[in-house]
Amino acid sequence: MRRYDDKVVVVTGATAGIGTATARRLALEGATLVLGGRNAAAGAALADELGEQRAVFVKGDLRDDRTAGELVQAAIDRHGRLDALVNNAGIDHAGDMLETPMAELRELFEVNVFAAIRMLQAAGRAMRERGGAIVNVSSRLAVIGVPGMGMYSASKGALLSLTHAAAIELAPLGIRVNAVAPGMTLGPMYEAWAAQAGEEVVGAASAAIPQGRFGTPEEVAAAIAFLGSDDAAHVTGASLPVDGGYTAA
User: Which option is the CATH number for 8-184+218-248: 3.40.50.720, 3.40.50.300, 3.30.870.10, 1.20.120.340?
Assistant: First the structure.
C-alpha cells in the first residue's frame, strides 16, 4: 500500500520503539519524513536506513520551546508543506501516587502533555491552509487505573482529552486529530519494566490480555498509519485501542 505517496510527515520520538516502527511503516507506504528525537546516533542511523530522499533527522528535546517549531520548519523548508504529525514522544513513570515528587510530575507532564501540545500547535498552524492529520500516541492507561501508574495515567488522559477537543476545534480547518491507545507493547519501556517486575508479574500481565500476549511496535504503527491516511478521512476525535482487548474486557 502506498497511502503516503506525496505526503510529508513529522514523527516525534522516532529513535526507538513505536516511533521507529512508525517511521519504517510510513516510509514503506511512501511518506517523506522528518524524524525527531534526542538520540542523535539512533536518529542518524534510522534516517540513513530509510534513505536521504525519504527521511531527515532533526535532533532536539521537546522540553525546549523551540524544538516543535524547528521540526515543523524542517518539513516546510525541505518540502514546502506538512501533511501529518505523529505525536509519539513520551516518557514512562511509575511510583506511589501519594509520594511522587513534584519535580517528577513536572518532567512527566512537560514531555507527555506540554510537548505534545506544542507539537500540535506548530503542526496545526502549518496545516491550516491545506488541512492534514495529527495522531497522538496515548495509552490504555488514559481510561483505566493501574496501581503505581496513576501519574502516567493522568498525563495520557490529558493527551486523550486534548485529542477530543482539538478534533472539534480544528475540524473547520480540515485537520483531523485522533489517538492510538497502545496496551503493553514490546520495546524499550517494556524491557525496563520487565527487568524490574520479574517473570511472575510479566506472565500475569500477559495472561490478563484477552489475546494472551503483548503487542508489538509494528502493530501500533499499523494503526497510526491508518489514522493518518486518507483511508480515515471521516475519522476524527477517535481513540483506537491497540491492546489485545484489554480495555474491552
Answer: 3.40.50.720
